[in-house]
Each structure stands twice: as C-alpha cells, then as structure tokens.
Amino acid sequence: MGFTAKYRNEIGLVVAIMAVILFTLIFDQAYIDLPGLNIKTILQQTALLGVFSLGAAIVIIAGGIDLSSGSVIVFSGSICTLVMLACSPVSYPSGPNNPGTAEMVDLGWSAVMLAIGVSVLVGLLIGTLHTWLITVIKLPPFVATLASLVGLRSLAKVLNPAFTEAMGLERITTLNATSIRFGILSEWWVSVVVFLVLSLACYVLMNHTVWGRHIYALGGNEEAARLSGIRTDRMKWAAYSIGAVTASIAGVLYVAKVGSVNPANMGVGYELNAIAAAVVGGCSLRGGLGLIPGVMLGVLFLRVVIDSINKVVDRGSDDFQGMIVGFLVVLAVAVNEYRRQGAGQRLAFFPGMLGVLMAIILGVLIGAVVFVASSLTYGVIVGGVVFVLVNAARFAQRDTGS
Amino acid sequence: MSDIISIRSVTKRYPGVVALSDVTLDIRKGELHSICGENGAGKSTLMKVLAGVITEYEGELRVRDEPFRFGGTRDAEDAGISIIHQELNLVEGLSAAANIFLGREIRKSFGLLDDAKMEQAAGQLLTELECNVAPSQSAGSMRVGDQQLVEIAKALSLETDILIMDEPTSALTDAEVERLYRVIDKLRGRGVTILYISHKMNEIFRLSDRVTVLRDGRLIETVDREKTSPREITHLMVGREIEETKIGDGRSAGDVVLEVDGLSLPWPGHARQWRLQDVNFSLRRGEIVGIAGLMGAGRTELLECLFGASDDPPQGRIVLEGRDVRFRHPSEAQAAGVAMVTEDRKRFGLFSHMSVGENITICNLEDVATQGVVSGRREAEMAAGVVDQLSVKTAGIGEPVTSLSGGNQQKTIIGRWLLTEPKVLLLDDPTRGVDVGAKAELYQLMDKLCNDGLGILVTSSELPELLTLCDRILVLCEGRLTAELSRSEATEQKIMEAATLTGEVA
After folding, report:
1. Which of A359, B84, B280, B304 could be B309's S-S partner, Cβ–Cβ 3.0 to 4.6 Å?
2. For chain A, which residues lie within 8 Å of any Cβ of chain B, measuring from their own Cβ?
3. How large is the ipTM?
4. How many domains does chain B have?
C-alpha cells in the first residue's frame, strides 16, 4: 500500500485544516494581528484535548469505548491538588481549633512530582477497574465507563471537602492549586511537549510493538484474536489503562492551567470531544482501524474549526463548541459508513415520511443556527432555502426511482 | 391439482457456488414430505426460497397453481407458508403471546395493545399443542421444545397450511420429540402440508409420506416411504462416485502425540446436557485423523476443547506428549505446541483490516521483536518466507488480506500457525469456501506437513475429503463417538450410518 493510500485520511485532514485557517484569515483579522498568541492558544488547546484523545483513540481502536475521560480528568486533578495540599505547610490563623488554610506557594519539586505520580497511578487504577468490570463482570464497555463518568465526578465532589477537613482545614470543594513550580505546567509549551511525547509513545506502541498489533487485532476481530492465542483481556487492560492514564495526565495539565479544580464544572463533556477527535481522525467505532497521526490531526482540526467559528461568529464563543463537535462527528462517521457500504450506489437520503420531517427539521435547525450566528432575517431565509432544497432532493430521488 | 406447491427448475447461484441446480419438485396437498441430504446439499437453500427468505433465484414457484415470487417472508406468510428455523426466531424478552402476535398485534380502542385477548388466543393455541407454558411467560425463560411450539403456534395463528420444519428435533429431549410427533399428527389432521428437513432416518421413516433426497444442490430422487429403506436413502444421500485420489498411502505413523481420555463438555441448560460425552481417541505423529459428523455433532467443540478455546472447561484427560494438559486459553495451547485453524475464516480467523503479512505474523510477533518492539524487516522476512513456502498467491505481503482468494486466505492462516512450530495441528473444515483446485493444493500441503511429523486432526462436512486425506476417521453423533474407522474400512455409507445413529445407542 502506497503512502497516499495509507494516509488518505490524514492528507484529507491536512487539507481541511489549511482550508479552515484560510477561511478564518479571510473573515477575521485576529490571526494576522496577533499570530503568536493565536498559535500558542490553539496549540495549547490542541495539546490538552490531544493528550486524552490519544487514550480515547486507543480504546476505540481496541474495539471499546471510554466515556469516563471528563470525570477522570477532574478526579485525577482533584487527587493531584489534594496531594499537594497534604504536602503544604498549614497555617492556623486563630488558634489550633479553628480550621486553617494551606499555603502551597512554595512547594518543592518533589511534592509536585509526587502529586503528578499519584494522579497517574490513580489513572492506572481507574483503567484497571474498567478492565475488571468489562472482562470479568462482563459489562459492556459503554456501561462500565458510563458508571465512572457519573461516579467519579460525584466522588471528587465529596472527597475534596472530606479530605481537606481530615487535614485540619476548612471543608473546601473547589481547591486552589497555586504552587509556583506546579504553575509552570500551565505554560503553553509544557502541554505541547507532553502531547508530542505522548503521541510519539503511542505511535511507537501502536505501530511498532507486539502490543500495538495485538490491540489492532483485538479491535478488528476479537474472537479471531483470542483464537490466535492473543491474551485479549490483557490487551483490553492495556487499552483502558492508557485511556484513563492519559486522561489523568490531562487532568493535571488542566488544573495547572486553570489554577484550581472545581468538580462541578471542570472537564464536563470532554470525553465526547476526545471521541469526536478520534473519529474525525479516522478511528472506526467498530474497532481495528485508526492511526495515531490521524488522531493528532483530528484533534488539531477540531480545535482549529472551533477557534475559527469563535473568531468569525464573534458571539456566543464557547457555546458553539458542542454544535461543531456534534456536526463533525456525524459528518465523519457518515462519510466513513458511506465509503464502506455505499460505494457506487446512490442512496436516497430523504425517504418517505422521514424525508418530509427531515425537510422541516433541517430547515428549522440550520435556520436557528444562522439566526443566533447573525440575524433573524438571515435565519428565516436560510431556513427556508434549506427546506426547499431538501424537498427538491426528495423529488429528485423519487424521479430516479430509488 | 392435488399439488399444493410446484417448484419448477429453481436454481440459486452464489458467487462461485451453485447452491441449487435446476430443482423441480411437487408437494402434494396434506402430505408430510421429508427433504434429506448431507450438509451443504441445498436443503436449507430450497426451504429459504419457499419461505421468501431468498428472493433472488432462477426458475418458477407455484403455490396452489398460482405463480408466486415472494419479496420477503411476509409474502410467503400471506400465501400460507411458514418456516420453523433450526435457530428459533423468538424475541426472548417478549411473552409467548407477544411473540405469537408479533407484527399483527390485537389492539383495542386508541390503538392500545389488547394483551388479555392476545394471551387468551395464545393460550388456546398452546393448549392445543400440549404446551404447558403460560402465554405471559417470556420466551427466553422457556425450554427449547416449548419455544419451538410457540413458533408453531405462531404459524397456526397465521392460518398457515404449509409448514416447513428445519431439523426440528435437533435440540429436543426424547419426551419433547414424542410430543412434537403428536403435534405433527394433529397438524396433519387439520390438513396442513408439512415439509420436514432432517437427516435422521428413524424420524423420516416414522413421519413421512414421501422422501426427497438432495445432493450437491441437485434433486436426486423423490421416493414413497413404503417403497424405500433407510439404507437406500443414505446411499442416495452419499451416492456420488468417489474419485479415487487417495493421497499419502505410504505414511507411517510415529508415536502417540495426543491422547484424549473420557473427554466431556457440559452444555448447561440444554436438553442434551453434553456437547461432548466421553470421547476417547489418540493421535500419532505423522498421522491425519478425520472427524466426521453432521452439523451440531460436536466436531468444532472437540477441537476447541483441545485448543483451550471452549466456553466451559472440558472434563476428562487430554495428554500431550505424555503430559496431562489443561489449557485455559488458546495462548497456553499455542505455547504447548497445539495450533488450530478455525472454521469460518471470516469470523474466527482473518483480520480483514490487516495485510497478508500482518495476518501471517500475528501469532509470532515476539519472535521478530526486541523488548516488544517489532522489527519491520524481520517481520517482512518471516511473512515472505511463509508466502514462499506455502506458495500463497499474492501481489505482496503488504496487500490487504481480503484481496486474496479463499484458498490463499486459508494458506495464510495455516502459515500463521505453522510459524508457531506446532506438534498437533487442528484444522476445522479447512476447505470450506475454497475452490476445487485450491482444495487439491491444501490436501497436498496437509500430506506434506503430516510427513514432516505433525499430528493432524481435521474435520470436514465433505466425506470424500476425509476419505481422501485421513488415515483414520472418527465419527461423532450428538456429542458421542459412534465409530472409529481405519482407512481401509471407511466408506461414506458406514460414516453416514454412524453419524445418523440417534436414540438407538445408549
């Protein structure tokens, strides 16, 4: 297989990324005015999302799914901060019976490293828990990791105040992580370096090691893998552990960047962004397919599009993120499915009653998006045009007799 | 006019295979007509055409003197034809009544389901069929025999007058079989025409009016039951002239490499209780032993037990080179020198996303890796070596494995296992879906491996293949070993007799 055939998806993504950047350059001055700042911001955001997208992708390649990343991020972030608090000198402002405050400003490197190490270890344990639930208790991966998604965030919420109280401090849920040395992790290049190192490691693992090949085999055909003497349970353990550990590392980086950890809102919904990045990057949710360079580009593409929309639309900013991710995932999976089964044959996209309803739904949906992005008039016009177009498509497909 | 179904020159082709070839058959109204034949003879294909499961075929189908071309099972049901598949088709989570009326639910005002009425109607049907389950009981919690009666009840509620039963007794206890016979009598009393697929002689001769034998997709003969004998039917089923191309006559078997003693594999929750029961045999170095048996006789299960791949752990002893072994995972079997090429390449063997080379090396990557990192060069050498050795026809080891023909895919998988340097090679129906020329090549390959000192255990649904290849043939019937035949004494007739020996041996 030639380079272009193997990396068709990746080449497509590079072209798409350039197209989006070009589009942004035409409609917005920001990239030209402040190129350095924009590049740093996009790269850091790409790196932060990328770190745990790598894990999400490996789980998907192994034929599973990890829905827990968002909560693993906040849980590990909390653990990291708690460890640093535990290492900090406590000052009691008004006598030993009153709750004190901890000062972590001057934490040494050893304390910071300990905190990071414990977080990574916690990730490993979470991944192991998932593996046990999936391989021994026989839960579907969806259920096992969904339970973590819901449970770990809740656990962080109750753990933080309980721990701080046990340390003799006041009960705190939102922890500050203000140590100077830990703060270095919030530099943009730290995230980028971590992401690149992890990417390289994952690339080598997946493309050049026995484990990697076995993970592809597991995802491609689990039964054949087992019957080929592959310890599929161990491979699952590897995949889910990588999934959780990368999320833990991302958790540490997010806490450093934000400077605090709030279990209520940190990392909410991030798991879906990671899955989206993996899918856009060419991983098939059926397993067995996907390349690490593709995932890296998928993450970059996702961030560039989000950034572009934020710049061009100019209002609502981050609120658009969900819509973009949702749309891109549908598009990426639809294109893959179309390629897989629809090669050559024309499909009817708007059949029967479903087609009638879709004309209305797509008209209203796209109209609404245009309305919030620009104005009511444009919204109504675009919505109307979409409605007419879908109906035209419905009649066109009827004529071809499909 | 007394013919309720006329099948006229029906041919069904699959890519590379003719499953049915110019079959012409008339079914009389009200008769019980048995269709028999070996695995792959075309019985199921013919029934699927009748039941509207297969809609693309050549030829004509007439029901009650009207030409029909079913677009789906619904059309066949409208024409009064229902099929009871071997694998039952019930929604396990729904009640018996809900299953019986699935898709035709009785409703009351506002479109709400009228469960009471459906359960009452279902109850009547089930009582009539001597089925003692409550109509509200969920299908998944019933015994197989009762599930089958629920399907029959469903067919009756459709006012079916032509009922196709595909090996209906294969999963039933003796008592359930007797009950089924009574139900069949009752149905015939109502004038229902029954097409009965089976290869069990005692059933066929107890129930049928006429018997049709299919072989290799062709209709061989239709005979009245009174005018024939089980011996004649088995002969017709096997019938073909055997090409005397026996290979490997000069083999000399070495010492025993594998010994199986009292091997049993439980079958929890099934009427038969045992997938395999008290199987004993031995395999020598440089010997090919064949395992014959009908579908569901336990061939695959036996190989899986030897390979540590069975779902439940087997009981009894497996002795490999004089040492007792108990494999809990295929990787342990692999390490001990047992290799298995699974049946159904696509589902259990191939990694279709991967290249030819990757498919070959998947079991042996450790051999070309340092500290877990695979050397691309050494891996390519290993794969290329296998491609040369087995003369796999491929444009290169980097090609997708799906681009190869069936025979070459099979060689790829055999090559994968030869790299593990096995002492015992288990081959589960290795020539299925492989064309004739490639089959001969595979035979020669097996012969060569055997001469190199491998002990080979091979299953096949094609008897001539086993007769050509094997030094000895073991025959399984419903999980029990019913015959062990040496090359000189084995004939298709003897094998078929042993393979259909049901109920008569304790």
Report:
1. B304
2. 1, 204, 208-211, 213-214, 216-217, 220-221, 223-231, 288-289
3. 0.85
4. 3
